Amino acid sequence: MDGRKIFRSDVDNIRQRCRFSPASTTGEQATALRLNILHQMIDDEILMRRAEKLGLLATDEEVDRKYNETKVFPLR
Description:
The protein is flat. It has helices at residues 8-17, 27-53, 60-72.
């Protein structure tokens, strides 16, 4: 990942926000959840790097414009 570090605190922050993760999860379940989150973070970073290399990243303006379009014409 080009030397970018993922800290345990990053994983734990996501875990805390996860609505499917009770705060009392411990032991093997907690470890499995942390590993799943870590794998997803790595996959997301790889996909973002590939998208960047292919020129597929949207600008903030493009995202805002698309968002505003969906507000005017919501999906049904």
